[in-house]
Amino acid sequence: MTIPGIQSSPMQDDSRISVQLITEECVHKLDSKHQTNALLNLVWRDSASEEVFTMMASICHTLMVQHRLMVPKVRLLYSLAFNARFLRHLWHLITSMTTKMITGSTVALLQLISRGSPMSFEDSNRIIPLFYLFSSLFSHSLISVHDSEFFGHEIEGRAQSSMMPFTLPELVTLSRCLRDACLGIIKLAYPETKAEHREEYMVAFRSVGVKTNTEVQQRIQAEQKRWVQLFKVITNLVKMVKARDIRRPFCPSGHWLSEEVNIRADKVTQLYVPSARNVWRTRRMGRIGPLQSSLDVGMEPPQLSVSEERNLAILTELPFVVQFEERVKIFQKLIYADKREVQGDGPFTDGINVTIRRNYIYEDAYDKLSPENEPDLKKRIRVHLLNAHGLDEAGIDGGGIFREFLNELLKSGFNPNQGFFKATNDSLLYPNPAAEMLVGDSFTRHYYFLGRLLGKALYENMLVELPFASFFLSKLLGTSADVDIHHLASLDPEMYRNLLFLKSYEGDVEELGLNFTVVNNDLGEAQVVELKPGGKDIPVTTANRIAYIHLVADYRLNKQIRPHCLAFRQGLANVVNLEWLRMFDQQELQVLISGAHVPICLDDLKKFTNYSGGYTATHPVIQTFWEVVEGFSQEEKRKLLKFVTSCSRPPLLGFKELYPVFCIHNGGNDLERLPTASTCMNLLKLPEFCDQNLMRNKLLYAIESSSGFELS
Fold this sequence. Notes:
The chain is α/β, with parallel strands linked by helices. The protein folds into four domains: 51-247, no CATH class; 352-469 and 576-592, Hect, E3 ligase catalytic domain fold; 485-557, Hect, E3 ligase catalytic domain, CATH 3.30.2160; 602-704, Hect, E3 ligase catalytic domain (Hect, E3 ligase catalytic fold), CATH 3.30.2410. It contains 30 helices and twelve strands. The strands form five sheets. It has a four-stranded mixed beta sheet. Strands 1-2 form a two-stranded antiparallel ribbon. The longest helix is centred in the N-terminal third of the chain and has 35 residues, at 213-247. The termini are far apart. It catalyses: S-ubiquitinyl-[E2 ubiquitin-conjugating enzyme]-L-cysteine + [acceptor protein]-L-lysine = [E2 ubiquitin-conjugating enzyme]-L-cysteine + N(6)-ubiquitinyl-[acceptor protein]-L-lysine. GO terms for molecular function: ubiquitin protein ligase activity.
């Protein structure tokens, strides 16, 4: 380091260069086949002691942390990553490491970490390198393990891959330990009492020869940095195991929830104020992270309390330890606080007024709600509709017409016939790779627009029945827009199976006649695309098939639709903070968008139903109505709910959240009429049917043949 005002001498420069050269030469020699094998032989021995493993972990930890070398770049590291026996032994050492307390009792170091209890420098120096190495190596090995190898295959009777160091039951226990360790490190990062925290560290460091307060401060920061680095690799591993459990559950129900965490939406009110809402974007644990406030121990007070800092770290890094319903409430409170700033509380605040022709809903909305015309889509939108004849439709938009309009607009924009989205064989939506061929260079503007529309639906707490492919939702939530091969099954299960077949094919791969190309058949036109330069002249062989498999998956999942997804994500982020959405995994985000596929609770619906036009809860017609609906199947109940509200699923937090409130209005005494609905008002117009059979037949006929939403 050069001190300002003091010029370094040529001797100092030469000294620095020589140290760098010596370091590079040592790393180079260490990476030689001969040296790597010598080190590996030390740990392969049955008699290998804890000291040998600790020494090996220290070497690897230094390579990764100080020299910033990645696992695939170092022969020693990737050799260890794919050795199941080594990883098992490493985990055994981590769980069996203990220390003596002042009371004389023995406690496991892993338990101290999980509690968030400070430990001596000697103890942290024993466990951090081992824990860091284990998490890094196991994470790297999991990248190469496909789901069929991770889980085994019941149909074919195939066991887990030999690459898997742990059985599924062992992974359940291991993942719980990793989860608790992460939560403990968050406590270490945000100690309850800064002064006590500082004093503990000062005593610890002075005991190992550190003298001045400045030196103590530097050692504290270095120690904290080591915990941050460890936190990053453990959370990465936890999320990888969690991702497998999302795609195919193997952990028991409630496994990821922590009893140690008590985050409630009504208790974290400080997170909803404007200054705190902004830190969700910048305060990510293990990046620049919330830990920075504790690196300068006791110097600058954080914007949030210790408790709020911990809660924010958990919600941004380990949200799955909090109940889903509680996270939904937190999300809605964040949105509500943001909305109050933008829209205000009054009905006549500044907003967006648009006139839309019913027969040109998408075209008119794309023009009038473009970012150039309406840069802030968070504002309240009032819609004036013109019918197919160009005449005004009845009604003043108090919010209901807009919601119905947005629902129809989303259905139109995401309809595969519109050309921007395609459906998988399971009828799940993802961006159409051929969209550019349909609309030209402006195709990304349409995805930005559609992203804003979905964001607006979330912002307005509207459920819309748009079933998205899991891989696409993962791309929206990821800090990188790319996803790995493990997601290919949600796009094209057949291609995924074919690639797995190729990976394990025992014959001569070259005889299959493959090369490094893929063929697109868009709009009936075949187009050959090279996966790498000169790909059409590179045959797929046993030696290069893994590279081919990953290039095919990367092309289909990422490259082919990268501009589509980036534009969509930018549009979504224009309305809703992506950090708030990252409290949810891809399956939970689908529930946030479309609601949960759960039985409809009639007691809850009754409790939050209004009546008008002379009807009351005790009116004979209303009593007959509820008796008939109670006899409906769940499918019929869903159709009734869709008929009245345009969504077949109940609100996430119950019918108290439905806006406008579900209402049954007197539809007159003409018994020949059918029930009708104004979905913009969540209003069912029910004629005075007193006979149960008549009520049932009329309701079923109406909900089976429901039509559009023009106001009557």
